[in-house]
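[step 3/7] fold_predict: job queued, chain A
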Amino acid sequence: QVQLVESGGGLVQPGESRRLSCVASGRSIFSFDAMAWYRQAPGNQRELVATLTLGGDTVYADSVKGRFTISRDNARNTVILQMNSLKPEDTAVYYCKARKLWSDYWGQGTQVTVSS
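[step 4/7] structure written:
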């Protein structure tokens, strides 16, 4: 039984930081091939924000490169998305995804709203 639960979303002001957490239960995060964060804004398609492979490699969308960081908290079986210098265009529902071979597991999403 695999479950991903995101948390940390909310209302933040432009320029501020926010940390999102994705807790995996029922399975170690090291059993997955990769973990990733996606986001979806109203009227837009879901887009890939950041990817973290089992080997520790990271890939970021150009729109967040230099501002966002994806990482693992091994002790808590958690994947982190650290978001700095937030902009209004970062407003979206953020989703955590885990991949094993051709199977994907998704969290329920957490809303991030960047507004003054």
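[step 5/7] annotate
The first strand starts at residue 3 and ends at 7.
The CA atoms of residues 70 and 81 lie 5 Å apart.
exit 0
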